[in-house]
Amino acid sequence: MTDPIVTLDRLRVTFGAGDATVTAVKDVSFSIAPGETVCVVGESGSGKSVTSLSLMRLVEFGGGSIVDGRLTLMRPDGAVDLAQADTATMRGIRGHDIGMIFQEPMTSLNPVFTIERQLTDGLRLHLGLSAAAARDRALALLKEVRIPEPERRLKQYPHELSGGMRQRVVIAIAMACAPRLLIADEPTTALDVTIQAEILALINRLKREKGMAVMFITHDMAVVAQIADRVVVMYRGDVVEEGPVADIFANPKADYTKALLAAVPRLGEMRGKPAPEPLRLVGDDRAPQPLTPAANPEPLLEVNHLTTYFPVRGGPLRRHIANIHAVEDVSFTLNKGETLSLVGESGCGKSSCGRSILRLVEPASGSVILDRKDVLDQNPRDLRRLRRDMQMIFQDPFASLNPYMRLSAQVAEPLRNFGLAAGSELTDRVAALFDRVDLPRSYLRRFPHELSGGQRQRVAIARALAVNPKLIIADEAVSALDVSVQAQVLNLMMELQADLGLSFLFISHDMAVVERVSHHVAVMYLGRIVEIGPRAAIFENPQHAYTRTLLRAVPIADPGTRKLDSDLSFTPIPSPMHDLTYRPAPSTYDTVAPGHLVLRENA
Amino acid sequence: MAYLINRLLSVALTLFLISVITFAVTNILPGDVAMMIMGTQSNPEALAGLRESLGLNDPQIVQYGRWIGGILTGDWGTSLVFKEPIGPLIAQKVTASALIVVMSMTIALVCAIPLGVWAAVHRDRWQDGTASTAALIGVSLPDFFWGIMLILLFARGLGWLPSSGFVHPADDFTLAVRHAFLPSLALGLGLMAHLTRMTRATMTGILGQEFIRVARAKGLSERTVVWRYGLANAIGPVLTVAGLQVGYLFGSIIVVESLFNYTGMGWLTYQALLNRDIPLIQGSVFVIAAVVMLANLAVDLLYTLIDPRIRLA
């Protein structure tokens, strides 16, 4: 094995001072060799980002300090201890010996400078290039990261580029001075799955061609399986396990790694199973109970030709000049006690569809029949009554709970609102709801900030359950949660379905989670359902080109099934904005098998 | 270009509305121009005759048409107090006040931006506390307090600068600036406090953004990161607030110009109000409104040069 480029030895990082000192990284040691990708994996708060920021000594700008340990970087002229290096040395290393990519491509670029300026200032600083030479090099870099029309991009500003293109620019900036170590801190977390696949393939190719060392930080075990050579598992500031990627997945040693891997839904592992079933978590001895649907299921929710537009206004008088066609002629049926998933990439209309059903946004046309009543025909008073039957769980449990209200009051609110309970009965019912979602009753008096993300999402579920709804619309309800917490919340939702006969409309971008929980799946693209059918049909026999694209792009949490050998390039999604005269064609479907419909492409 | 036309159209529309409001309000005030000219003890018949000859008995809309027609053709009428044509009178006073407004704004921006950035860079440390406390004191104390302090210190105490009077810049520029300096400083201190707080708040937000971290990760010096990457993003909001403060300045010059006996727009408006010189009030209010609007238009246009996202919007 070649000598490592960087070696971390007993790194310890703290934040704050005195009594308020928090140790974010306790004792971390590992090394990275040239041409090797080391994935640092862990959940939020594990210290993985702090470790990477320490290597760049950027941790100081966030109020942290490296209190112990050595960070040895091999440079052509000898080894440097990054923990002790002075400011001038560090400036020479940042962007030159070590390049870094961050999570949010939307905010990683300075909005008021051109792409050219942001690409060239590092080149001019570190390599002393002239303006013309730096420009040539910038152009070459944009070509290397395979951005379409690179010449034009140089003159553009960040807001003129899509998220995927921006992340390519950020990678080009990090690669500008041919660094020997590339640190990528969750570089694909904010991206859609097809773009994630493209970016992962790009990083992989650059590593191969340049022989760089890559330190890749992620919380996503599927990404780890796709890109890592070696894996470092972190938990609460410590390394709990380290080893080659195949060993970690096949034969995890640490309890934490085992629990983490058990909680990861893997695309394809539901193959051959007739019904969704909870994940089998570590320490859970019960055999998972599959959610077999009734033999002759009754429909609960029928959505017919649902269409929702958002007006676009412009000009000095804010005239209505165009429409965003968010939901375009969508029809589906959700049975009692079953889960239908709406899956698709950002902007496909899946959330707008969920909101239209509840009339949180007003649809333009169509019908939504819930238990033989048309939601869209109700007057405000009847609609209010009908909303008792349909509740929603939102993505961000930090934003969907009122920070100034006690949890008991928030769960009691829907009951009070509908006058369903009062006095001691109300108290009892709220307490019972807390039991139902496995929250201790001592939490009743707490405020949201005293809970973790998973606990808050349980409160949101309890609140939705309070009025005994028939339908729960879960809009990305587990996307913001760490994987082990996500698994627990998913299991809770499935358990509630089994016990209470709930129907879920499960809106998600995550194919592996969808495969785990759904009876039926609808794939959305540009406001339309392009393919709908039983779960097995969609995952095992996908017919529509877009469904196949999505499934091809999803990383699989299995190092034996790698997909990143060649550069990937998927067709970007066109804009759903059209002028007022645009009349879309109706959605027509071909039946592949009973219940399995595929959108007919209009030539 | 479409943006520019849109903005100019909205300025024209707003000026029209301001002219209507100005005209209406000054006509609702008790006592009319004829009464002002002849006095309250005058002969009712003579008063009626004067009303007729001044056209005060015509419908309001005709009177407004006559007034706005005069404004547009350069005939602004005659001041009752100064017995002078209003157009040239206002033109001269606007020049005097413009000097103060520009100087105080320059003083405020030149001090506030570095101070605000400095406070944001050293957020939650003693530098930030010092700057924030100083700014809070600046915001809390009224302009005339600063005016009195400045007169006591620089005019009475040290004798460096004159404490009152106005010299036209065309006559002697240096002397004009010396006379304008203390009133400008009195106005600038309060303004500076506002803008320091604004700069600090905006910069604090921007320094927490990911692109600042990316800039640092490129190895750029901290000076480049803060003063180029950071300030380029903060300057737009700060200038917008500065533009809005021009309106506040024209309110404040009424007090400050009177204090320094500086004969500018503020002083003129005060005289007009004191003597119910209705034509002069109308002209002054209209001019002040127009200047404030144009200042904001200038800021908006400047913003499009700084922030590329506005250009396409």
UniProtKB/TrEMBL annotation, chain A:
Keywords: ATP-binding, Cell membrane, Membrane, Nucleotide-binding, Transport. Gene3D superfamilies: P-loop containing nucleotide triphosphate hydrolases. Its main location: membrane. GO terms for molecular function: ATP binding; ATP hydrolysis activity. It is found in: Cell inner membrane. Belongs to the ABC transporter superfamily. This is Peptide/nickel transport system ATP-binding protein/glutathione transport system ATP-binding protein. It comes from Loktanella atrilutea. The lineage of its organism: Bacteria, Pseudomonadati, Pseudomonadota, Alphaproteobacteria, Rhodobacterales.
UniProtKB/TrEMBL annotation, chain B:
One of its GO terms (cellular component) is plasma membrane. It is found in: Cell membrane. It comes from the Bacteria. The chain crosses the membrane at residues 98-121, 133-155, 175-195, 238-260, 280-306. Keywords: Cell membrane, Membrane, Transmembrane, Transmembrane helix, Transport. One of its GO terms (molecular function) is dipeptide transmembrane transporter activity. Residues 94-303 form the ABC transmembrane type-1 domain. It is a multi-pass membrane protein. PANTHER family: DIPEPTIDE TRANSPORT SYSTEM PERMEASE PROTEIN DPPB-RELATED. Belongs to the binding-protein-dependent transport system permease family. This is Peptide/nickel transport system permease protein. It comes from Loktanella atrilutea.
